[in-house]
Design a protein that fits this description.
The complex is a heterodimer of chains A (474) and B (1001). With 474 residues, chain A is of the alpha/beta class. Chain A is built from 11 helices and 16 strands. In chain A, the strands form 5 sheets. In chain A, strands 6-5-7-1-8-11-4-12 form an 8-stranded mixed sheet, with helices on both faces. The longest helix of chain B has 34 residues. The chains are: A alpha/beta (474), B alpha+beta (1001).
């Protein structure tokens, strides 16, 4: 059997060579990687979604104040937690139970429960597929966020966007496959670790687009250069490289470089166009809330996100929230949840609802997947002394809510449930690998077959876990 | 197959014999089972039918289990194959699925059952043989290295080294021929980048071209191998597999200002050609092998170079903390086994390895061996030679100063003894050896569980115990806190002694033991906002007797710390003084800040404590703890001295101060292993730290032939012994993987692809090497050269195989696109660091100095109100950012988009081989990043300086600098026209962007 393995290993090389020879594909890259990884065979079956936009809430949004209606919690307000388990919470304090700070109502035709914290999202509730039974492996923000995005609690694993870039490539020649728009206030904790390519080739790393100022790094010369000098430099580079190519028997990699410069020049036109909202109608801008101070930042991010998707970008990640610390600027409402969530939700509610409406009316929601997730939820009991109904809530990895919308989903439904008070997931538990397997499934990818060899193992986004959530698929 | 045929024959005789006369005894039966039947079961059945979760609950590796059967009942009926489910399944071809047994194998099993299914050795070793799915103990890389015979080949004239004989043998076998030797300009550029990571100078090129001696190539090689820049390039090679980063990653991503010591150690080790076995042994256990050598301790920076989850490690939840520690150990185990041995032992944390013969229990043996590893900042100043000299000087000056001051001091102190200063009046006072009341004010104390009052004082259990007072009735700004405290142990990290806090810990200041620095007292504060190291020596006595610790907080923000009533370390000025508000502030004892638990709680006893509503001066502090202060105010001292002595005293003080600065500058601290004292390790069943199984001793992986995986240690052996044995096992000369793995890494770096493609994995997934004998020859050479890595470098780059041209050959390309047969030298793109270094070098702006703290090309800013760091890039033309890229501060959250565009790896992941991609982002970075624009200007300046104002001379110069050649007439004419119209910087920018600059033939 050694011979057989040897045979495979040789074949792989030859194939890599052949792939390189045919190169240039619409995948934002110009050449097959030397590691022979360019052909994971995706999609494996007909995809429902072609692209993803991910709204990633940092700091942990409270499920019991938003999408998980718990009359039991309202009834038990002010009481002590009745449980045989001693809660193992992050900051160690278990105060009295607290009812949600916002009223819940059934919305739309579906009657999906959404609280008054998200009045705009409530109006598009019929588009949402809420999962109310998420569980996370840790109650520590950053490892939990890593898990939300990469499936692993640790630094150095590729994130979902990087896996998509690797698996599906790009539909655009002149925009990156994986774009990240961080919160304008601050980067999330860990900065670029959150959109890392991990062990995948570096080109799968998320490219940061800023909604203001120069959209991406190095798009234009760092300082003014006269048009003449700019053109002269380009022409000369092109000539030199073509001459060099001719001396090197038309080597594929070298011709790919020349093509790279051509595409770079096209990006200089296409990227600013994406970030330029002038072409959007006043009605559209108003819909997203570009005109209101409270919503302008996230409205721009959502609108640019939609424009990126329209132009073939595979995966757009919008981040809501900065790092941890005081004063709060993400969803980590330990001290005063009402104040904290009120401010954070105001920033994103209208823009995200507008994004859904806009995608719908443009026919894009048919094959676009919208993800709205957070690393874990918050406790139904408060973070306070044992006999006090406090105003803040601690971390809760045992049960929380996320939602999806768009392609291939049953909408206006809630899947799974937590216990009476919303502390622990009780029915149809969903782990991050399950969630990721489902997302990949919607993209036409079998999560067990999207792999990359790294240090002894064919790595997967879903590690050795993951079940597709069939009941939420349409 | 021949074996099987013989076997069938043998067994037939046995069968006949046993039926008739019982002539065959038990020993023969056992031998036959072990040699004939067990191998079939091992090869064909045990992949699924053994281990912790066998398919169909049928375990065929064990006599008892096999005979009992699985979920479908009995499968072997001795003597009756036709009634045995095993036979039925095998015979029908159902099992093994997809690859039925061949006829001989079937016959053996049938006859074995028919003969009574006699079982030999009770447990079959499922790892005995390699199967279609995974490697066994017979896997090639686990066998001893054997120096191979040098083959004879078709073209002895081509052979320069035994390496070439192995290469040519393979080419011959595949009907291919090697490429001709590259021309000298190409060779020197190739050698220069490969060995030093920098281009050759025009002068180096000329010298080589002019050298007609037969050893011209060797002279270049020797010169480059002895260049200090060799160490810079090859340290980078090593740091990729050490997953070396200079910040913690995760939420806080704190910078590690002392991590560069390890990087410098690697550079020096490379340059001095430290024997590889020593190089590795020190990285695993340098602190134990050479405890007095600071460099050996710095070497252990390897183990802890990965990410570290500060938040996770100090969180409330015990079970979650155990998971984080488990992840940390997995990182150590994975790094040690992959990097040194090409073994992915980390895959065996939850179950036996799926592909390689590594059992789960062996993972935990390794976990035991590394169980004491924990990162920390080690103060090595006392071991540092220069530091020792400076300290010696300072001490002798101090002695002279003391001699001058002693009579005066004695006189002043004597008068103080007579009139012992009265203790200052506290604002609140607690004598816990007597009771819990505030004996001055009204701040009485309540106790939590885990706190007990004894005649000695208040004892806190280090788990939950603490005490708190009622709230302060007035605001408190400037103040002094004091506590007489005895510790249960000196290893604890972070317990609070006395804290003022408001808002449940949102702001606090207090006396904290050893939170950031082991063994030292610190002024703790919320998110370290007002905390700095005072640079005092570690505590040694507080375990044996109570020690008074005092901190004063002055209105200007300065913080003074005292131990035993004497100044402790250096005072410093914090960002400001916090005024604690009335009605919202309380005093905590035994807890750094709420909530209780974690490392915030103290294990120790507070005898008494005081709070003063002003910052006491040094003599008051002393008086308060019943000591006489040694402190004498300068004015009082001078008043007692003669004018001459006063002058001499001032001179000495000046010298001591300047020496003090030098001592601080020479302080030698390193981010390295700061070991723990681990208990015995238990197997975590399915990797779950809450479900512990058998206790194991430190040990290795048994499947490695030729060395003993049993370290002969007790499970509770001291951590030092465990780690030392591990380093001996890894670096043992008979370890079959140790030399093979590193020579393959070197080969890969020079030739583009390793003889084994997966450089950190020599297991089943690696397949077979392209040139197995060459691999063993190199490994044997490494050992016989005395573990000299430079000897291997030299052997490779001297070979004819290495010297081949990179010319394309379409016939060969169709057969072997990946060039694993080495029909040419594969062209390579410069690595990210080399791109930047080569531009700096060409522009004349490279600072070639070696060593020292990293340059920061990002502004490391502390996010507001947290310990988290954010790294914001700064303009690359900022002065001071001109050293080789190895010296870039590698913050995990602060990657550089320019370097990333050239596939610079994430420092959090072990990178045995870098990807090489070509993207438009790369073109954007090269055209537009200010690094390139800035260096284009510098290069333009250099050209004017080197070649004067004449454009054609500038063009000639830049071609020589950048490419090591003259331009053709056509190239010159074209470039000159650009220089004339747009200046040399425009030409420089184009040169940097050219393929010829970025690729090496």
């Amino acid at each position: 059997m050694i011979d057989r393995r040897e045979f495979f290993s040789w074949t792989r090389n030859t194939l890599a060579g052949a792939a390189a020879a045919s190169m240039m594909l619409r995948d934002g890259t110009l050449q097959a990687d030397i590691l022979g990884e360019s052909n994971p065979g995706c999609p494996h079956f007909a995809p429902r979604a072609k692209r993803v936009i991910h709204i990633c809430l940092c700091g942990a949004m409270s499920h019991i104040d938003t999408f998980d209606y718990k009359p039991g919690l309202i009834k038990a307000h002010g009481q002590a937690l009745q449980s045989s388990d001693k809660p193992d919470v992050f900051f160690g304090q278990v105060g009295r139970l607290r009812q949600p700070d916002w009223a819940f109502r059934q919305r739309g035709e579906s009657g999906l429960w959404v609280s008054d914290l998200f009045p705009h999202l409530a109006e598009v509730a019929d588009e949402l597929t809420v999962i109310r039974s998420m569980v996370a492996e840790t109650s520590n923000h950053t490892p939990a966020t890593f898990q939300e995005n990469s499936g692993f609690r640790l630094n150095g694993f590729p994130t979902l966007g990087a896996w998509m870039s690797y698996g599906l490539g790009n539909e655009s020649d002149d925009l990156p496959a994986f774009v990240v728009i961080p919160d304008v206030r601050e980067l999330p904790a860990g900065g670029s670790i959150n959109w890392t390519n991990g062990f995948l080739p570096a080109r799968h790393q998320g490219v940061v687009i800023r909604p203001k100022g120069e959209a991406i790094n190095d798009l234009f010369p760092a300082r003014p250069i006269s048009p003449g000098a700019e053109a002269a430099a380009r022409d000369l580079v092109g000539e030199m490289n073509r001459r060099h190519l001719a001396r090197h028997a038309d080597d594929d990699v070298l011709s790919a470089r020349i093509r790279g410069y051509e595409l770079a020049a096209r990006m200089q036109t296409s990227v600013p166009l994406v970030a330029d909202l002038e072409g959007e109608t006043r009605e559209t801008k108003k819909l997203y809330g570009v005109d209101r101070a409270e919503t302008a930042d996230f409205a721009r991010a959502c609108l640019i996100g939609r424009r990126l998707l329209e132009r073939g970008v595979r995966f757009v990640q919008l981040i809501s929230g900065g790092t941890f610390g005081s004063p709060r600027r993400n969803w980590d409402g330990h001290e005063n949840l009402k104040e904290n969530h009120g401010l954070e939700a105001l920033r994103i509610d209208q823009p995200v609802a507008a994004l859904l409406r806009d995608l719908r009316r443009r026919g894009m929601l048919e094959d676009t997947l919208v993800m709205f997730t957070t690393e874990f939820g918050r406790t139904p009991f408060t973070q306070a002394a044992g006999d006090v109904v406090g105003t803040g809530r601690d971390h809760n990895p045992y049960g929380f809510s996320v939602w999806l919308a768009g392609a291939g989903l049953k909408s206006g439904i809630a899947y799974g449930s937590t216990d009476e008070i919303g502390w622990k997931a009780a029915e149809n538990l969903v782990t991050w690998p399950d969630f990721h397997a489902t997302v990949l499934h919607l993209l036409g990818i079998d999560h067990q077959r999207l792999t990359f060899y790294h240090n002894g193992i064919q790595r997967r986004l879903t590690n050795v876990h993951g079940h597709v959530l069939k009941p939420i698929l349409s | 197959m021949r074996t099987s045929l013989i076997l069938v024959g043998v067994w037939s005789i046995v069968v006949i014999g046993s039926n008739s006369s019982k002539a065959v005894d038990d020993a023969d039966q056992a031998r036959l089972f072990d040699t004939k039947v067990a191998p079939i079961l091992a090869r064909r059945c045990l992949d699924c039918h053994s281990g912790t979760d066998p398919k169909g609950k049928l375990d065929l590796s064990d006599r008892k289990q096999a005979m009992e059967g699985g979920e479908n009942g009995e499968v072997i009926v001795p003597g009756k194959p036709e009634e045995s489910l095993l036979w039925e399944q095998v015979n029908s071809g159902e099992m093994p699925p997809k690859s039925p047994l061949n006829q001989e194998e079937k016959t053996v099993l049938r006859e074995w059952i028919a003969a009574g299914a006699y079982w030999g050795t009770a447990r079959i070793d499922p790892y005995q043989f390699t199967t279609a799915r995974r490697a066994g103990r017979d896997w090639w890389s686990l066998q001893p290295v054997v120096r191979p015979k040098i083959p004879t080949t078709s073209r002895p004239d081509w052979i320069r080294s035994p390496i070439d004989a192995f290469v040519l043998q393979n080419l011959d076998a595949n009907g291919l021929t090697p490429a001709p030797e590259a021309e000298r300009r190409t060779l020197i550029r190739r050698l220069s980048f490969d060995i030093t990571g920098l281009p050759p100078s025009p002068e180096d090129v000329d010298t080589f071209l002019a050298d007609t001696s037969s050893n011209a190539h060797e002279r270049v090689v020797d010169r480059l191998l002895s260049s200090p820049q060799f160490g810079v390039r090859w340290a980078r090679w090593w740091l990729d597999v050490a997953r070396f980063g200079e910040s913690n990653g995760f939420e806080f991503d704190e910078f590690r200002p002392d991590a560069w010591r390890y990087r410098d150690w690697v550079v020096k080790a490379m340059n001095h050609d430290m024997p590889y076995n020593e190089f590795v042994a020190l990285q695993i256990a340098g602190d134990l092998l050479k405890p007095d050598d600071p460099t050996a301790i710095e070497a252990t920076g390897f183990l802890v170079a990965g990410a570290y989850d500060t938040v996770g490690q100090t969180q409330q939840s015990g079970p979650m903390k155990a998971v984080v520690r488990g992840d940390e150990l997995e990182d150590y185990i994975g790094t040690v086994t992959q990097t040194f041995l090409g073994l992915t032992a980390n895959c065996a944390r939850c179950h036996d390895h799926k592909f390689d013969p590594i059992r789960q229990v062996e993972y935990y043996q390794l976990a035991s061996a590394l169980g004491g590893v924990r990162p920390g900042v080690r103060d090595l100043s006392s071991l540092d030679t220069e530091s020792k000299v400076l300290r010696g000087k300072a001490e002798s000056l101090q002695a002279r100063l003391d001699a001058i001051e002693a009579p005066a001091r004695a006189q002043i102190l004597a008068s103080r003894k007579v009139n012992l200063d009265p203790p200052p009046k506290p604002f609140a006072a607690w004598d816990f050896d007597r009771g819990l009341e505030d004996t001055v004010g009204t701040l009485n104390v309540t106790l939590s569980d885990g706190t007990t009052r004894t005649s000695e004082g208040l004892h806190f259990d280090g788990k939950a115990g603490f005490a708190r007072t009622s709230v302060l009735k007035r605001d408190l700004g400037a103040r002094t806190i004091e506590a007489l405290v005895k510790l249960d142990n000196l290893d604890q990290r972070g317990g609070g002694v006395l804290t003022l806090q408001a808002g449940e810990g949102l702001s606090f200041d207090g006396i904290v033991f050893a939170e950031q620095e082991p063994g030292r007292w610190l002024p703790g504060s919320d998110n370290f906002r007002r905390t700095q190291s005072v640079g005092a020596p570690p505590e040694t006595e507080a375990k044996d007797r109570a020690i008074p610790i005092t901190i004063s907080y002055s209105a200007d923000g300065s913080i003074h710390m005292y131990r035993n009533g004497q100044p402790y370390g250096k005072p410093y000025k914090a960002s400001g003084l916090v005024t604690y508000p009335a009605e919202k502030t309380e005093i905590l004892f035994g807890l750094r800040h709420p909530p209780t638990g974690g490392n915030r709680v103290l294990a120790g006893t507070i005898v008494r404590a005081r709070l003063y509503d002003r910052a006491l001066d040094p003599s008051e502090v002393a008086a308060a703890v019943g000591a006489t202060s040694d402190y004498v105010a300068p004015a009082a001292m001078i008043a007692m001295l003669t004018p001459d002595s006063t002058t001499e005293r001032a001179r000495l003080l000046g010298e001591i101060e300047s020496l003090g600065k030098q001592i601080v500058a020479h302080a030698r601290t390193a981010y390295a292993v700061a070991p723990l004292k681990p208990g015995a390790t238990q197997v975590a069943i399915r990797g779950n730290a809450q479900q512990l199984g058998e206790v194991v001793s430190a040990g290795g992986v048994a499947a490695l032939t030729g060395i003993d995986a049993n370290f002969g240690l007790d499970p509770a052996a001291p951590e030092g012994e465990r780690r030392k044995r591990l380093s001996a096992w890894v670096t043992h000369r008979d370890n079959p993987l140790f030399a093979r793995v590193v020579v393959n890494r070197i080969w890969q770096a020079h030739m583009g692809t390793g003889l084994v493609e997966t450089a950190s994995d020599f297991g089943f997934n690696a397949g077979k090497p392209s040139h197995p004998e060459l691999l063993d020859w190199l490994a044997a050479e490494l050992v016989s050269s005395g573990w000299s890595l430079k000897a291997i470098h030299k052997a490779i780059v001297m070979s004819a195989s290495y010297r081949q041209s990179s010319r394309h050959d379409s016939t060969a390309f169709t057969r072997d696109a990946g060039n694993r047969l080495l029909w040419r030298k594969s062209p390579t793109r410069l690595e990210a660091e080399m791109v930047r270094d080569a531009m700096l070098w060409t522009s004349g702006g490279l600072d070639r100095r070696l060593g020292g703290p990293s340059y920061q090309d990002h502004g490391a800013t502390k996010a507001l109100g947290t310990a988290a760091m954010l790294y914001v890039p700064v303009d690359p033309s900022t002065p001071g950012l001109d050293r080789r890229t190895l010296y870039r501060a590698a913050a995990r959250g602060g990657r550089d988009t320019f370097l990333d565009a050239f596939d610079c790896p994430d420092p959090s992941t072990i990178t045995p081989r870098r990807a090489v991609t070509t993207t438009p982002l790369q073109a954007l970075a090269m055209m537009n990043n200010n690094l390139v624009l800035h260096l284009s200007d510098l290069l333009s300046d250099r050209l004017a300086k080197d070649a004067g104002q004449e454009p054609s001379r500038q063009v000639d110069r830049v071609y020589r600098l950048a490419y090591g050649r003259e331009p053709t007439d056509e190239e010159r004419a074209r470039a000159v026209s650009v220089v004339k119209e747009f200046g040399a910087a425009t030409l420089a920018r184009a040169i940097f962007n050219s393929s010829e600059f970025l690729y090496v033939d």
